[in-house]
Specification:
The protein is mainly α and about 80 residues long. Helices cover about 70% and strands about 0% of the residues. Helix 2 crosses helix 4. The relative contact order is 0.13.
Length: about 80
């Protein structure tokens, strides 16, 4: 059902929600209090490599590129 409705595998769907939660934590300023690794684990990822793959699949950039672009946007 998930494959038909969302046009993606179950694990990709779950990882997409996890990546969204990671970005939400960034928006809430959690990076000021926690490390990126802590936020990755809090989002439900067990490894940095799986997080990076899921993040790049969703946003077409690395997490560090995403964070850097957000800092530029916020500063402007």
């Amino acid at each position: 059902i998930i494959n038909s409705y969302y046009s993606m595998r179950f694990t990709d769907l779950v990882n997409s929600y996890r990546v969204e939660y990671f970005v939400q934590m960034l928006d809430e300023g959690k990076l000021e209090s926690y490390t990126i690794e802590a936020l990755i684990k809090n989002a439900g990822f067990t490894s940095k490599s799986s997080f990076h793959s899921a993040f790049k699949k969703k946003y077409n950039c690395t997490p560090s590129q995403f964070i850097a672009s957000r800092k530029v946007t916020i500063s402007s």
